[in-house]
Specification:
By secondary structure, the chain is α/β, with parallel strands linked by helices. It is 47% helix and 10% strand. The chain is globular, with a radius of gyration of 21 Å.
C-alpha cells in the first residue's frame, strides 16, 4: 500500500500498489532483552511497587543484568528490600539469583556513550530509546491489528484521555474523525463522563480507546471499569504493561514516556496512536473515499495555504 501526503496531515491511501488491506500481515517475533524481561514478568501478580520495578527494568533492559539491588532500587525509586521481595515474588531465592538469570536471558547490548550530553540531549536520547522499544513491540503486529479491527467496528467510537493524556486523545480523535463516521472525544472528567459512556453504548458503541499516562488519575481507572461493566471492550495505550489501567483493559499496548525533564514526554504514545489509526483505516473500507472528500472540500474552501 503506497502512502502519500493528503490535506491536514492525513494519509493518502492509494490502491495502485495492488495490496489487499485485508490480507494477513507477516508476524514478527521480537527477541530483544526488553521482550525477554517482559516475558519473565508475565503471569505474576505484582504489587504497585513491584510493577514500578518491572517497568524500570524493561526500560533499561540492557543495563539491569549488571546493576546491584541498591542501584536498581535507586533506578525505580523504591527501597532495596522492595527489590529483594520483587525477586522472591518472581520465584528466585533473592536478587543475586535473579541477576544471574538476567545475565543469561537478557545480555547487555552496546549503548551510545551519553555521559557528555547535557540534560536536554539526554532527554532526546531517552525518547529515542523509547521509540526503539516501541519498534520492538510492533515487531508482532497482531495486537495493533486486533485493536484496529475493534475500533473500526465500534459505531460510535469513544476516545478517552484525561489530564496528561488529554492531548493524546484529542490528536487521535481529530484524525480518526476524518475516516470514522462517529468519534466521541472524552477528555474532560467529572460526573458526566459515565453519562457520555452510557449514551455511546445506547448508540451502538462496542469498544473504547483510552490513552493512559502518568500520573494515572483514579478517575481513569474507575471510568474504564464502568465502561467494561457497560459492555465495552477497552483498548488502552499506556506507558507500561504494568500501569494501573492494565487490570481494567481488555487489550493494552505499552509505549513508554520520557521522565528526564520536569514534565514527562510522550513521543512513543503519540506515535503508537498514529500506528493504531493506520490499523483502523485498514478495516474501514471507505477511509480513502472520506479522505479524498475532505481534500476536495478543503481545496474548495481554500483551507490550506499552498
Amino acid at each position: 500500500m503506497s502512502v502519500g501526503r493528503s490535506g491536514d496531515g492525513s494519509a493518502d491511501r492509494s490502491a495502485e500498489a495492488g495490496v489487499d488491506p485485508s490480507a494477513d500481515r507477516s508476524v514478527g517475533v521480537t527477541d530483544s532483552p526488553a521482550a525477554r524481561l517482559q516475558a519473565l514478568f508475565e503471569g505474576h501478580r505484582l504489587t504497585p511497587t513491584q510493577r514500578r520495578i518491572a517497568h524500570s527494568m524493561v526500560r533499561r533492559a540492557a543495563d539491569v543484568p549488571f546493576l546491584s539491588s541498591v542501584e536498581l532500587a535507586e533506578l525505580a525509586g523504591v527501597s532495596q528490600p522492595s527489590v529483594t521481595r520483587f525477586a522472591v515474588a518472581l520465584g528466585f531465592d533473592g536478587y543475586p539469583a535473579l541477576r544471574r538469570h538476567l545475565r543469561e536471558v537478557a545480555p547487555s547490548e552496546s549503548a551510545p556513550d551519553t555521559a557528555s550530553y547535557n540534560e536536554y540531549q539526554q532527554a532526546v536520547e531517552a525518547e529515542i530509546e523509547n521509540l526503539k522499544h516501541l519498534a520492538e513491540i510492533l515487531a508482532d503486529p497482531r495486537p495493533v491489528a486486533k485493536a484496529g479491527r475493534l475500533l473500526a467496528a465500534s459505531r460510535p467510537l469513544p476516545v478517552l484521555g484525561l489530564r496528561a493524556a488529554a492531548s493524546q486523545a484529542y490528536g487521535f480523535a481529530y484524525f480518526a474523525a476524518k475516516v470514522h463516521p462517529d468519534v466521541r472525544l472524552l477528555n474532560e472528567g467529572g460526573t458526566m463522563i459515565h453519562d457520555r459512556i452510557d449514551a455511546a453504548v445506547r448508540a451502538g458503541a462496542t469498544a473504547l480507546l483510552c490513552f493512559a499516562l502518568p500520573r494515572h488519575p483514579r478517575e481513569v481507572v474507575d471510568t474504564l471499569a464502568y465502561a467494561r461493566e457497560a459492555g465495552l471492550t477497552v483498548v488502552t495505550i499506556a506507558d507500561s504493561a504494568f500501569a494501573p489501567v492494565a487490570k481494567v483493559s481488555d487489550l493494552l499496548i505499552p509505549a513508554a514516556v520520557g521522565t528526564g525533564l520536569a514534565f514527562d514526554t510522550a513521543c512513543a504514545p503519540m506515535l503508537l496512536g498514529r500506528v493504531l489509526l493506520e490499523a483502523m483505516c485498514d478495516d474501514l473500507p471507505d477511509a480513502q473515499a472520506r479522505l479524498e472528500e475532505f481534500d476536495a472540500r478543503a481545496a474548495a474552501r481554500g483551507l490550506f495555504v499552498e
